[in-house]
Amino acid sequence: MLSYLLYTIKAVLLGSVIGGTVTGYERIEPDRRNERIMSVGALAGLLISIVIAYLRNNTNKVSTATINTVIYTSSLCAFVLLIILCITAFIKKGNRLIDILIFSALATFIASLTVYSLPEVLMYPHQIMNTEKSMVSTDLLLKMAGVLFGLVISFIAFMTALKCTSRISKSAAGVSVFLQMLFLELIMLSGILSVNLQNGNIKSNHAVFSYVVFVKNHRNYFIYISFILLFAEAVYLLIKSLHVNEAYRNPAEHRKIRAKWRNIRRWAVTALCSFVLTIINLTVVEAYNSKDVSLSPVEDTEYDDENMYVTFEQVSDGHLHRFAYESADGVSIRFIVIKKTGSSTYGIGLDACDICGETGYYEKDGQVVCKLCDVVMNVNTIGFKGGCNPIVIPYEIKNGRIIVPISGLLEYEKEFR
């Protein structure tokens, strides 16, 4: 349960706070047209997320690297366009066309944010049911409860961000939206660089590599920063709600003002509680859940001077299996094999990735997780480039065996030194 709670929070919470902040900004000066534009963006993002989740769960036709590149690029372009449009709107005040374009850019950003956050979580129910032997087992119910609880926490964060942002001044809300989007775009930029580094489209250098690794290994920091901005809004509103001096003409107006600020105070307190709950989940709960993580032992398998041979019988149980070839220099070159969920195919790759190195992967609650950065692998994408997926190695399947050329493993000997 705790694993899926944390997986869901890490996947969705940042997007929820940012999405709530952007939506709250739009609600400061409500406009039906702008609301419809942003609703179309959110709906498009949801539909695309559902399609991606379905394809990734049921086919091997989805390239994670390609999808990520499209998402990251769309978000960055929307952000840059939004900055240009806002500057133009400041110069040419009252231009309705520019106003429409601004909210169209925001809708594109919201769509990208949704597709960035949701597909992985939408895949969890399918993956959980495929890894459980019984549809009514306690483990299945607990895992599903973890996903549901994570979504509930994220929804509350979305609503608190929306309510708090919509109650502050438009200029302050604009600054909050800009900062929230800016920190997200730092993640998006890291994603683009990561994909291009792995594909060899850009040359690796220390600065780029360090930036990508830092962002990947400190994703929680960006959630903290996002919540700190929301925390500042909540504290401001809470203090302001304790010193209300709005003018009123009769007792009815006075009661209405008091009710309004009572509601604001409740949402501000909810935002503060969400902040505390998030900190607890990402520190105490995560530390408890990830304690004593160790890699499973290397398994024996047949080999000769040219190849290593893994039989289907050894790896057909759907769990992660680890094998290794010891080079002449005594270096153990590890690779992993796992049968893909609901499929007769296998995920095969080096027990290392281009970003985190040879720290390896472990299995937890039916998921494959990177030991260094805690990123959860989609089992169906193991064997493909992208993200924190294992480095792809050559192999062939013949006569009920997976044949891995030793020469292909020796190419990566330096990864395990």
How does this structure look, described?
- The protein is an alpha+beta fold.
- It has twelve helices and ten strands.
- The chain has helices spanning 2-28, 32-58, 64-91, 96-117, 119-131, 138-165, 170-199, 206-217, 219-241, 251-289, 312-315, 406-410, and strands spanning 302-303, 307-311, 321-326, 332-339, 346-350, 361-364, 367-370, 376-377, 396-398, 401-405.
- It has a four-stranded antiparallel sheet with strand order 1-2-10-9. Strands 3-4-5 form a three-stranded antiparallel sheet.
- The radius of gyration is 24 Å and the shape is elongated.
- The mean pLDDT is 86.
Quickly list its features.
417 residues, alpha+beta, four-stranded antiparallel sheet, three-stranded antiparallel sheet, 12 helices, 10 strands
Helices and strands in order:
Blueprint: H1 2-28, H2 32-58, H3 64-91, H4 96-117, H5 119-131, H6 138-165, H7 170-199, H8 206-217, H9 219-241, H10 251-289, E1 302-303, E2 307-311, H11 312-315, E3 321-326, E4 332-339, E5 346-350, E6 361-364, E7 367-370, E8 376-377, E9 396-398, E10 401-405, H12 406-410
Antiparallel strand pairs: 1-2, 2-10, 3-4, 4-5, 6-7, 7-8, 9-10
Helix pairs in contact: 1-4, 1-6, 1-7, 1-9, 1-10, 2-4, 2-5, 3-4, 3-7, 5-6, 6-9, 6-10, 7-8, 7-9, 9-10
